[in-house]
Design brief:
two-stranded antiparallel sheet; 163 residues; Helix Hairpins; mainly alpha
């Protein structure tokens, strides 16, 4: 079995071989968020194979991301990517408030209303960049879920077809 250091070197070389080692770190950050979403899905749905895959992929992305930053890659973002960065930042604020609430019992109720309002404005902006509206997207999501059946398992709603 390879050592962690040896694997990191192989991943770094993989990035170099594909000329990704100096690519825009913003794109790599978006990939990090994608893989993190897969990890969250794996945990929420109790799918170990998805968890293992995501944990490995996250490490690959982190290695490449660090390499790009170290190599002085130009960091640039279009307007939609900037909105996504704001969204992640706001999600981080919410996560921090929930963490503080659970671990330090800082508040009786986590104060997240302003963060949710901010997220709502980001969603509206991203919707416009994609030639739609937040309302249309919400309507489509509701149409998909309105008759959905399933059950709660460990605090997570699991769709009937996933049971």
């Amino acid at each position: 079995m390879n050592t962690k250091k040896g694997l990191e070197e192989k991943v770094q070389q993989w990035f170099i071989d594909r000329n990704l080692h100096e690519a825009n770190p913003i794109k790599q950050f978006l990939k990090l968020m994608e893989e993190s979403g897969e990890l969250f899905e794996g945990i929420a749905k109790d799918k170990p194979e998805l968890i293992y895959d995501a944990l490995g992929d996250i490490q690959v992305v982190m290695i490449g991301f660090e390499q790009q930053i170290k190599n002085g890659a130009q960091i640039s973002a279009n307007q939609q990517e900037l909105e996504l960065l704001l969204m992640v930042s706001s999600l981080g604020n919410i996560a921090q408030k929930l963490y503080s609430h659970v671990c330090h019992n800082e508040t009786q109720t986590p104060l997240i209303k302003s963060d949710l309002m901010f997220l709502d404005s980001v969603i509206s902006t991203i919707s416009l960049y994609n030639e739609t509206t937040a309302e249309k997207c919400l309507d489509e999501a509701y149409e998909v879920i309105k008759d959905r059946k399933g059950k709660m398992i460990d605090g997570v709603f699991v769709k009937e077809e996933d049971l």
